[in-house]
């Protein structure tokens, strides 16, 4: 798949979790990735990490969904296998490299990008809740996962900022 086609697909694919909770018109995968990347840029910078790399990791983390669509995270082991296969169809060595780093989650920048994936979802859940949609399940699940991640010392410099962002 050509990169420009993958980009277009990501702009047109709605995130399924929102639709499963009653939204007819939901945030796209591209919108989610963009928000995740901006959060990663800000938080990695505040933590003294390579902010541009963290943002790039967050930006590409859902690129395989251009091929396979947005799959619910409850099927995560299956999703991981399909993600790898789909990444092979995207013709970009750099995006593939960044995607694998994000998936492995070992570098500090990948940890920040993974945190920002959850954080963007949590923030969006609260936005939808303010509009009257019941996103309690998603909001609480991402809040718990973020709290677990924040126990890692790598997040010490930004814990307060993350908690502040979750209050918006």
UniProtKB/TrEMBL annotation:
Its cofactor is Mn(2+); Co(2+). It is an enzyme of class 3 (hydrolase). The keyword Hydrolase applies. Residues 25-131 form the HD/PDEase domain. InterPro entries: HD/PDEase_dom (IPR003607), HD_domain (IPR006674), YfbR/HDDC2 (IPR039356). Its EC number is 3.1.3.89. Pfam families: HD_3. Homodimer. This is 5'-deoxynucleotidase.
């Amino acid at each position: 798949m050509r990169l420009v086609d993958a980009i277009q697909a990501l702009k047109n694919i709605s995130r399924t979790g929102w639709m499963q909770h009653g939204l007819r018109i939901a945030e796209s995968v591209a919108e989610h990735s963009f928000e995740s990347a901006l959060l990663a840029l800000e938080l990695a910078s505040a933590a003294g990490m390579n902010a541009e790399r963290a943002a790039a990791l967050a930006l590409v983390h859902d690129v395989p969904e251009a091929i396979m669509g947005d799959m619910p995270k409850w099927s995560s082991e299956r999703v991981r296998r399909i993600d790898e296969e789909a990444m092979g169809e995207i013709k970009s060595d750099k995006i593939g490299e960044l995607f694998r780093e994000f998936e492995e989650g070992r570098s500090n920048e990948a940890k920040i990008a993974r945190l920002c994936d959850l954080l963007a979802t949590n923030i969006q859940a609260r936005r939808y809740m303010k509009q009257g949609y019941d996103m309690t399940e998603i909001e609480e699940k991402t809040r718990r996962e973020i709290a677990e991640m924040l126990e890692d010392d790598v997040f010490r410099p930004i814990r307060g900022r993350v908690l502040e962002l979750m209050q918006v």
